[in-house]
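Researcher: We're teaching a course module on how sequence relates to structure. For the next exercise, students receive a sequence and then see the predicted structure as tokens, so they can try to spot secondary structure elements on their own. Here is the exercise chain.
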Amino acid sequence: MRKVISTVMTLTLLLVLAWGGSAAARQIAPVEGLETLRRSFAGISDFSADIVQEKQISLLKRKMVSTGTVRFRKPSLFFMELNPPRASRLLLNDTQITLYFPREKSTSQMALPPEQSLQHWFTFLARPVTSLPDGVDVRADQQGDTLTITVIPRSGGQVREFAVTLLTDGTIRKLVISEKNGDQTRITFSRVRKNSGLSDKDFRIN
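Model: And here is the predicted structure for the students to work with:
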């Protein structure tokens, strides 16, 4: 359960930070990269997308591949659903996480500390970015209209680093989460729909 929550929270953080060329890639200042993300995010009230998740466990040779969907609506709702055979649904409402497994008909809940809440990150993104968030190092690379932001937490948690790739118009393309134990999760986004008017019924977990 903690591992699932850790991976999902990493995904949520990146989706909040970034809504997501043929030129040579160039490294840009981390603050400039985050500010580009903030501007891209400013005009988006909600988004949904199809995803393919590839999870490589360090002790296994084959990847576990799942498909699913994600949805997000400002200021505090995030939903992710993975299809069978590893079906699950997750709802984050600001600080409250609910995880539901349809096959087992089981539900788990967890409350996040305030500094990890969606509202905390919206407060950070409400004004121009002039410094990095506390507790992380950031690397930014740009190739044409494609931007990749890599975040390296300084804490002793499970995640070694995570990287999000998106277009400068706010269309997210890829997320890669690398863990300290060697596991890696790669999520590819497609059919991104922005500002479609998602309602409360789009965030029902069961």
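Model: If you want an answer key for the exercise: DSSP finds three helices and twelve strands in the chain. Confidence is low (pLDDT under 50) at residues 18-23.
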